């Protein structure tokens, strides 16, 4: 999968992709990541990417021209399945959306800043708008990193069998059951006997029951 991220702050996106599983996905060539600095697509010496809003009002608006130039250049090189804009007023990210995006070949992710982008970017260049929650961040970069993390870990080969994404919370609309490791008894806080029984059908049944119980207690409204 190829991911092109367009940002005014490329440095903010470096470390998530230079560490752990996201780094591994790039090293293994399962992910082809390209980060583009929007300021490389400006004409003027000051590398301006934003301006005042027409009609007045506080806050700067990201201009359409550098964004259009960058997206157009990429589109002349290959077909993109989605051009995603990270925005607090986009569709709320969930596991189902991440699953779908993880099956695509090429995507562009645009990170917003300031008040946001000129509406014509959203009307003519963007195919999907995604929010990572009902709160406002200073820019779309951290949101883009969250989106990338959630999709990259689903790409076959990125996670090992033991950490397979299939048993994650939210797959099958269920939260994951409780998990334990050594010691069996920590200051009197004991691991449930069933997990130590070696009776695997019984353990499977217990995990299913606990997953349902956790979902009903914590997130009864999970839907697909
Ligand atoms: N940019 C700023 N806030 C955001 C959010 N909550 N989700 C996605 N992009 C954002």
CATH class membership of the largest domain: Alpha Beta
Overall strand count: 9
| Percentage of residues in helical conformation | 25-40%
- Taken together, the total number of domains comes to 2
Oligomer: single chain
| CATH-assigned fold name of the largest domain | Alpha/beta knot
Give the full name of the CATH homologous superfamily of the largest domain. Answer: SPOUT methyltransferase, trefoil knot domain
How many strands, what sense, and barrel or not for the largest sheet?
5 strands, parallel
How is this fold's topology laid out?
Layout: E1 2-7, H1 14-17, H2 20-27, E2 32-37, E3 50-52, E4 60-62, H3 64-77, E5 82-92, H4 95-102, E6 106-111, H5 119-124, E7 128-131, H6 141-152, E8 185-186, E9 189-190, H7 200-218
Parallel strand pairs: 1-2, 1-6, 5-6, 5-7
Antiparallel strand pairs: 3-4, 8-9
The protein binds adenine.
Adenine (ADE) binds at residues 86-88, 112, 131-133, 135-137, 140, 143.
């Amino acid at each position: 999968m190829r991911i092109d991220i367009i940002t005014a702050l490329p440095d903010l996106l470096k470390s998530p992709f230079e560490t752990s599983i996201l780094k591994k996905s790039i090293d293994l060539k399962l992910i082809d990541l390209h980060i583009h600095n929007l300021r490389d697509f400006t004409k003027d010496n000051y590398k301006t990417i934003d301006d005042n809003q027409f009609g007045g009002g506080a806050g700067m608006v990201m201009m359409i021209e550098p964004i259009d130039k960058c997206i157009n250049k990429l589109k002349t090189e290959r077909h993109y399945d989605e051009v995603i804009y990270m925005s607090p007023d986009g569709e709320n990210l969930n596991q189902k959306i991440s699953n779908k995006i993880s099956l695509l070949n090429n995507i562009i992710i645009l990170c917003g800043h300031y008040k946001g982008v000129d509406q014509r970017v959203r009307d003519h260049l963007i195919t999907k708008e995604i929010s990572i929650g009902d709160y406002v961040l200073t820019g779309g970069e951290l949101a883009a990193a969250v989106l990338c993390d959630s999709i990259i870990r689903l790409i076959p080969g990125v996670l090992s069998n033991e950490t397979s994404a299939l048993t994650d919370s939210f797959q099958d609309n269920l939260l994951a059951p409780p998990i334990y490791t050594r010691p069996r008894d920590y200051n009197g806080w004991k691991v449930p006997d069933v997990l130590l029984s070696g009776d695997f059908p019984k353990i499977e049944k217990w995990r299913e029951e606990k997953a349902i119980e956790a979902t009903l207690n914590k997130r009864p409204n999970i839907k697909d």
